[in-house]
């Protein structure tokens, strides 16, 4: 029989893990129940009945897999915790006598690797069974393995030094260590945003400059019309992995890029593509990117400050049956203790993100003369991605970074009819 954590820290973590899973379960079940048998009139001519039924079947399959994977991960975490796994791993690594920082990097890295190994079978099943069954998957086993190895290499080359630096700060800089640690990680994150489009993202996708022609002329013409400087317009080989469509901005300053999936370019008209890019430019014009970055940096500072209050807290370590105190253990266990705060923050950030999406939509239709094209693009994207057209409001509130497509279209029509409101 496994021991049960008796102190308040263990009770808080256990309650939070169970409560967040239960909330997620309720949210997903309500979302499944909200799916309708009839196709909404807005999408007649875009979805046929067969495609709509297919989208609902895809929702059921992906939701079921997500719930199973979440349940398995939770059960294995509890088994690992209550069987003393955190301490066993710590004692094993301490036996090599590498020193506190290398041991800490290995400890955190080992836990992350275990988490990845648990999720790997579900990722394989989702990619090669569910995504394949519903016509999305274009990932070959070779590409899948290559992506895993590249991700692992980046974790070692980038993640390990970052973890080592954080551990050094909290070991060497005293009670105010959270300040230099916060500053250093913030600076590194901004640097990574700057170099990622040039050095990291091309490891996974090929970026090809958009060819001269009608589409490029239309995009550059629109960008000039709203006085938005473009450093580069690229098409990426999204079809290498999936039939899904997307577009995004990445980087900032001189490294700022517009990236269009080749699947998006092939499936949409020029007006629709410009409308989609107008939406993305709206995010920049409304400073949504800066707001998100500022909130992320602020959250990091609060997290590090609170972490500094829990360093080497004996009760926290007792909750996880740890023999020895350590900075790296404090980091791991505090992150579990911080789960309820992170959960609440994530809901708040989703609300803010949905508001930003509405604002970017309004910018697009108010600056692009053919605003109806954005509606056409959203309708087609919903069809090609088999989107859930009728999600439950609670599920939207808890998990959606974008408003449901029906609500977005409704708002856009209001903007077009009443542009001065």
UniProtKB/TrEMBL annotation:
Q: Where is the active site?
A: 280, 361 (proton donor)
**Residues the record lists as binding Zn(2+):** 279, 283, 357
EC number(s) reported in the record: 3.4.24.84
Q: How does it sit in the membrane?
A: Multi-pass membrane protein
Carries keyword Endoplasmic reticulum? Answer: yes
Q: Which CDD domains match?
A: M48A_Zmpste24p_like (cd07343)
Q: What family is it from?
A: Belongs to the peptidase M48 family.
**What's the protein name?**
Ste24 endopeptidase
């Amino acid at each position: 029989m496994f021991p049960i954590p008796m102190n308040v820290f263990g009770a808080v973590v256990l309650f939070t893990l169970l409560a967040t899973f239960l909330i997620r379960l309720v949210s997903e079940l309500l979302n499944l129940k909200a799916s309708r048998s009839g196709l909404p009139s807005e999408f007649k001519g875009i979805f046929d009945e067969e495609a709509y039924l297919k989208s609902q079947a895809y929702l059921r399959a992906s939701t079921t897999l997500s719930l199973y994977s979440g349940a398995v991960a939770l059960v294995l975490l509890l088994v690992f915790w209550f069987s003393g796994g955190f301490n066993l791993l710590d004692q094993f690594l301490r036996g090599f006598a590498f020193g506190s920082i290398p041991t800490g990097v290995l400890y955190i890295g080992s836990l992350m690797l275990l988490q990845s190994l648990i999720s790997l079978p579900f990722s394989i099943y989702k990619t090669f069974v569910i995504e394949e069954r519903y016509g999305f998957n274009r990932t070959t086993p070779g590409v899948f393995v290559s992506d895993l190895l590249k991700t692992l290499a980046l974790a070692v080359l980038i993640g390990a030094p970052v973890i080592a630096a954080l551990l050094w700060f909290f070991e060497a800089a005293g009670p105010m260590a959270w300040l230099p640690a916060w500053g250093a990680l913030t600076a590194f994150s901004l640097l990574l945003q700057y170099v990622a489009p040039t050095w990291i993202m091309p490891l996974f996708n090929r970026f090809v400059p958009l060819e001269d022609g009608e589409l490029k002329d239309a995009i550059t013409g629109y960008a000039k019309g709203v006085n938005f400087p473009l450093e580069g317009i690229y098409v990426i080989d999204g079809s290498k992995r999936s039939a899904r469509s997307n577009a995004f901005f990445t980087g900032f300053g001189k490294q700022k890029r517009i990236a269009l999936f080749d699947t998006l370019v092939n499936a949409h008209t020029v007006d629709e593509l410009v409308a989609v890019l107008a939406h993305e430019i709206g995010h920049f014009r409304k400073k949504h990117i800066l707001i998100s970055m500022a909130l992320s940096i602020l959250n990091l500072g609060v997290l590090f400050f609170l972490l500094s209050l829990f360093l080497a807290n004996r009760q926290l370590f007792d909750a996880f049956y740890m023999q020895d105190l350590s900075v790296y253990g404090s980091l791991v266990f505090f992150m579990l203790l911080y789960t309820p705060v992170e959960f609440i923050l994530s809901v708040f950030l989703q609300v803010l993100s949905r508001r930003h999406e509405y604002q970017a939509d309004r910018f697009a239709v108010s600056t692009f003369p053919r605003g109806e094209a954005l509606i056409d693009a959203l309708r087609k994207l919903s069809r090609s991605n088999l989107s859930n057209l009728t999600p439950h409001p609670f599920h939207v509130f808890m998990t959606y970074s974008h408003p449901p497509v029906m609500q977005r279209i409704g708002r856009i029509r209001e903007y077009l009819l009443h542009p001065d409101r």
